[in-house]
Structure formats: structure tokens, C-alpha cells
Amino acid sequence: VIDGLLELARHRVEGGGGADALERRVERTSVAFEWGRLKAAGVTQEGGVNLRVLHRGRVGIAGTTNVGVGDAAAQHAAPLLERALASAELGEEVALVFPAPAKLPRLVTHVARAADASLERLIQIGQGLLERLAREGCQVNVAIEREVAETRVANTAGAQGTYRSTGVAVSADLWRIAGDDVLAIGDALEGCDLPADDALDGVVRSITTRLDHALHIVAPPEGALPVVFTPTGLSAVLLPVTQGLSGKAVVQGISPLGNRVGEQVFHAGLSLTDDPLASGRTASRPLDDECVPSRVTCLVQGGVVQRFVYDLETAARAKTESTGHGQRGIFGKPVPAYTNIVLGETGNAKREAWNGLGGGLLRDITDGLLVDELIGVGQGNVIAGAFSHPVALAYRVERGEITGRVKDAAVAGNAYDLLKRIGGFGSDARWAGSRYAPSVLLEGVAVARR
Amino acid sequence: VQGGAYPVVLDPELAGVFIHEAFGHLSEADFVYENPQAREMMTLGRRFGKKVLNVGDNGAAPGLRGTLPFDDEGTPTQDSALIREGLLVGRLHSRETAAAMNERPTGNARAISFRHPPIVRMTNTYIGNGRGTFDDLIKDIKLGVYACSAFGGQTLLENFSFTAAYGHMIRDGAVAELVKDVVLAGNLFQTLDRIDHIAGDFRWNQMGGGCGKAGQYPLPVTEGAPHVRIEEALIGGDVPA
User: Fold this and answer.
1) Option in A224, A381, A450 nearest B241 (CB)
2) Is the distance from CB of B126 to CB of B19 less than 8 angstroms?
3) Contact status, residue A354 vs residue A201, Cβ threshold 8 Å
4) Is B61 within 8 Å of B69 (Cβ atoms)?
């Protein structure tokens, strides 16, 4: 569909312009178990085209889900192009350069077993999880979503790429309501393939371990304390950093990291990488949504800021090159977005050993917290680094051991300051969504209680 | 602001976000209808607050963003009382949850678009008007926080967090210096029960944005409230090292 569209566009754009387009078709199968029983199952399909033109130096965007094949496609192309050109009349001026053809990395994004799995198979996976998570006095929600997609991107400079992809997400939440105490503990898996048995074992173990430690409630500590953030609990600390490393924030002049490339900003053990080539991950792809071939981007190395992520537009504004982080939907213009973020201790190979909660970091803590989930992450002026969140799920650590769950406590600090004071990395690195990280011990986190 | 427990006065905008986040989501019947423990926790007639507290959800209030003549299942909208004089008296229903609980649908089944099923959602949620003025609320507070405007909020059922856009310290019964990073953290049951004074200056918040639930975002909703005083609430923030 988009090749004919780009051919039309090539003849219409003026002033040395060009165009690029993305076509994506997605089939999504979802199964949901609520309070222990199958509640909903269904399939949705969606397909569409997003077109961008550079016309008289201005950018115009149009999108449609009204796409056919063959003659029908040609009929829909012309009005879509007209809308993009009309949008360019009022569009922003950008010195956009569409990338030339380039060799794409080879990687597996599509697993036939996942694409072909029947609805019954997905239901079976869910039922297996439900049975294994069943506990007296607890209720379990499980959701499974399988996505099969085909993506094609191309531009008028001749660059193009097509790939098929699969994604399977499995999530489970266990709820325990005792009087006025509501406890919710969840875990999720995501990958291109159906989850392996040992991965599902990991979900069950992760939920039941955290539940066992949560049954006993203890008073929260107070003061500036050592706090271990689990791979999922890290979000509040990493969000300001990833926002600050986005080329868009740098171009806007709002990133505290904007003029600090080459500086030692964080603890020397901290490295942060964006990896669109990571094997088996749903965010991996051979090229971005603007025809830029995927490559690994080192964001922070040894605590030193290395570079920011850009899409074509922010790169043009920053007078640099796209790092291949353009992401677009059917409607709207491309924006810079991360793929897979990998947090690692510089110089250490990835270690993945179950070592209890905290990945071995609790040993030397006399009095502190283990934070697994916070409430309200992402609210407020995130990029400035200051955060303050009540705990959703956190445990008190005394003399190296978890002594129970704490309630009615809040943790606060500044992410940029705290990441200078890393006390250690756990041996429990894992994927949490599209982020790979171990538990991280941060020193001197403010803990307030009622 | 320095973290800790304070008497807190919420301005009408933040009080509206508070009642939406801290109580509104819990009164959505899809949370309770299939969970016996949750039903028990939300038994009608249970005391949630002091006599001054009245809470409702009114999809029929004229001219607001959450206003609809009928919901996305065809049920006419209405003014549903949720808390009356501190007692739980109602909850928000779709046809499914109402049938399951043998109660009446309230016109709260809403879908964000044709791509999604209607689920139980709020419309225009409010704290009912009280008596007196803002000055009456702060005049006997020695040290407290006046939390204003809202960046947003999130509930994990009994626990909630909401972020004020800015705040002032209250010192010796008067509004004092400006403070930032005012995040209220709390437990629903304790916090509702600590609302001890509600002023008579009710207003609807006509702001943008919307509410998200089960992947359906942003749903247009409105909140409304007068100034509200909480005897004691946890404010997150720096604590002295």
C-alpha cells in the first residue's frame, strides 16, 4: 500500500521535500480471567497507514485505518496524501532528511509457535497460572495477550524495511483483602515467544515469595535510609533519567542532562543502554518507524553521560543524526521512544540467579526498606528528578532480613542525587516490561511515615 | 515541603481529585461484585467518615465534561449518593454489576470508544457542600499544609497518592510561605475518617484531562468540592538526614 502512496507523494511535494510512511497491521488475541474465572476472550484486528510529507520545508502528517488492497488501496491513497499536504501548510518548519537505503541487522522478531497458538492454548496457560497461584482467602486475575503484527516502513529516498513480529504478554495479580487491608501483588512476562515453563514458574515464585513476606505487617522505619529498589520498583528513580536522556527534552532545553555529555553524573558503576536488537523482546526490531536501521545506543557508561536518543525530527533540530528511536502510530507524528533499556553494572556480565528478594543486597542493611512498587510514579514534574511516593508494596529490612510489609510510608528523594550514591547492584537482573535491570541499593533515601 | 504528618487543607480542585482517586474508584462496583472480601469491606451502611461528609456522582449535572443523558448501555444518568452523613449508601453500577449485586443500575457504564466495552466509570464526582469559609478551616491550625491544585493522582484501592501543583504552609491560623513537591499519601479509610471540616464554597473543577482505567484513557470526568480539612495526613517530601 505505502509504495504506491510514496510514489504519488514524490510527484507532489515541493521545495526539495520528500515523504515517509508506515503501514502496520496488528491482530490481538486477549484472554482475561477475573477473580479466578474466565471472563473474556476475543480477537481484534487493526491496520492503518501513517504518512508524513516534507512539503515546502514544512512537515505534514496524516493517518488512516481506511486501507484496502489493490485498487481500493489506490483509491484511499490520494485523499490521504491530500490531507498530509494540507497539514503541511500549517506544519512546522524542519530540515528533515529522510535516510538513504542501508543494510538492516538480522534478528528474530516473529516466532511461529506464538503466532499459531490457538485461543485454547492461551486459555490453558492462564488456567495453569490460576491453579498454581490459588491460595485460601486470595483471588487471582490473569490476563494474556498475543499480538501478531506486520510492519512496513519506506521513504522517498529509497530506504525501506518489512518485518513480521509476535508478542505475548502474560500478567497475574493476586489480591488479598483482609478487613481494610488490601494487598495486591502482581508480576508479568513479555516476549516474542510463548512463555517457557520455567518463566511461568518464575512468576508463581515471585508472587508467592512476596505474598509470604507481606502477610506480616510491621511499622515502617523513618529517616534517611538505605533502600533497595527491585527491578520493578526502580521506575520512580529511572523515569527522570530516561526522560532527561531523550533528545526531545534536550532540544526543548528542559533536560538537566542536556549539557552534560562526557561528565561523570552518576555512580561509576552505572551503565544504561538502549538495545533494539535484544533477542526475543517485543520492543526489538530491525529498523525504527522512520527507516533508520536499529543499533545499540550506549546512553550512560561508567556513570558518564554518553548520548541522547533522537528521532529524525529532534535530530534535525539538534543538528545531529537520528539514533533510530523514531516511533509512530497510525495517527500523529513520530516521537523519540526507547526500545529495550538495559541497566547494568559496568564491567559485569549479566547475572541471573534467584537469590531471594533484593538479589543479595539486603545482607548489610541494619535498618532500611525494600521497595517493590510505588504509587503515583510519573505524576508531577518528573524530569527535575525530585520524587515522593507512598509505597504500594514495600518491606522493612532489619539486620539483613525482611521482617514484614510496611504500610503508610512514603519514599522521597532526587533521582539524580540518589544515583550518585548506589550502594550495590543485585544478582537478580530480569526483564520488567522492556527494561532489564537488577535490584539497586540506594543510600540515604528519605522515608516518611505517619 | 518537609515530609511528615500535618493537618492538611485541600483547595476545591485538589479535594475533587482526592475524592475521585481515594474514594470514587473504590465505589465502582466492578471492584466488589465478584469478591466477597471486597463486598464485606464496602458493605452499605458502613461508616466512612464524620457526619460532615457527603459524596456523590452526578452524571446528570448540567454542562459538565462527565455529563451524559444516558450511559453507554442506555441507562439514564442520575445523581447517585455514595456517602451520606459519613455512611456508605451507594455505589456505581453498570447493568452487569447491578444485576450481580441485585441493586439498580446507576448509569455509570461508559466506554472510551467503540473499540472498548463499557465498564463501570465515574461521571461528575463531588464532595457535597459544607458550612463556613476557608478562614474557618485554617484559623485553629498551628502548623499545617494548604495543598492546592492537582498534577494527578493514583489509587491502589485502599492506598492513594496525589500530587498537588503547589502548596503553602499554614502557620498560626494563616496562610504562610509557598512550598513545592507536595504529595499526599494515604490510606482511604483513615483519611476519609479524618475529614473534620468542610467549607461552604463548593465549585466544580472545569479542567481538562481525563481518567484512565483498564486501558481506557482519557475518559472525560469532572470533580467538584469545597475546601476540605483533613485533621492529619502524610505529606511526602524530604526528611532531614
Assistant:
1) A224
2) yes
3) no
4) no
The letter for the amino acid at B18 is: F
| Apex A89 CA angle, A84 and A95, nearest 5 | 85
Q: How far is A326 from chain B (nearest CA, A)?
A: 23
List A259's β-bridge partners, or say none. Answer: none
- Per-residue confidence at A348, pLDDT binned at 50, 70, 90? very low
ipTM over 0.85: no
H-only helix segments in A105-196: 112-116, 119-133
Secondary structure of residue A75 in the 3-state scheme: helix
The three-state secondary structure class of A54 is strand
Tell me: the pLDDT tens digits for A81-104? 999 999 999 999 999 999 999 999
Instruction: With a cut of 90, say whether residue B140 has pLDDT above it.
Output: yes
One DSSP character per residue, A184-196 reads EEEEEEEESSPPP
Minimum distance, in Å, between the CA of residue B59 and any CA atom of chain A: 27
Is the distance from CB of A83 to CB of A140 less than 8 angstroms? Answer: no
Task: Give the N- to C-terminal CA distance of chain B in Å, as an integer.
Answer: 14
Mean pLDDT of B198-216: 87
Q: Could you tell me the maximum CA-CA distance found in chain A, to the nearest angstrom? A: 72
Q: Is A95 exposed, middle or buried (0-12, 13-18, 19+ CB in 10 A)?
A: exposed
Residue in B41, B190, B236 nearest the CB of A448: B236
Query: Distance, in angstroms, between B224 CA and closest chain A CA?
Result: 21
Alpha-carbon distance of A192 to A123, in angstroms, equals: 18
Shortest distance, CA A47 to any CA of chain B (angstroms): 13
Q: Please, what sign has the CA dihedral across residues A128, A133, A135, A140?
A: negative
The H or E element containing residue A299 is strand A297-301
The helix/strand/coil state of A144 is: strand
**What digits encode the pLDDT tens for the residues B62-72?**
999 999 999 99
Cell numbers at B101, concatenated: 449485586
Query: Quick check: bond before B218 cis, omega within 30?
Result: yes
Q: Which amino acid is at A442?
A: L
- Cite the DSSP H helix spans in B29-92: 29-32, 36-41
Q: pLDDT per residue over A308-321, tens digit each?
A: 999 999 999 999 99
Helix intervals (H) in A253-382: 312-318
Nearest beta carbon to residue B35 from set A35, A44, A447 = A35
Residue B46 has pLDDT above 80, yes or no: yes
Specify burial of residue B52 (Cβ count, 10 A radius: 0-12, 13-18, 19+).
middle
Q: Which three cell numbers stand for residue A309?
A: 536518543
CA distance A400 to B134: 49
Q: Are A187 and A393 in contact (CB under 8 A)?
A: no
Residue contact B161–A376, C-beta within 8 A:
yes
Strand extents, DSSP E, A346-425: 367-374, 386-398, 401-406, 409-414, 422-425
- Asked if the Cβ–Cβ distance from B162 to A139 is below 8 Å, we say no
B217 touches chain A (CB under 8 A): no
In chain A, residues with a C-beta closer than 8 Å to the C-beta of B115 are 44
Give the Cα separation of B102 and B98 in Å (integer). Answer: 6
Question: Most A CBs within 10 Å: which of B157, B163, B180, B183, as the mutation test of the A interface?
Answer: B183
**How far apart (Å, rounded) are the C-alpha atoms in residues A420 and A288?**
32
Mean pLDDT of B100-104: 95
Instruction: Report CA dihedral (B12, B18, B19, B20) to the nearest 10 degrees.
Output: 110
Tell me A105's DSSP state.
P
First to last CA, chain A: 60
Instruction: Mutate one of B26, B37, B119, B231 to test the A interface: name it (highest A CB count within 10 A).
Output: B37
Between chain A and chain B, how many beta carbons pairs sit less than 8 Å apart? 125
- The structure's pTM equals 0.90
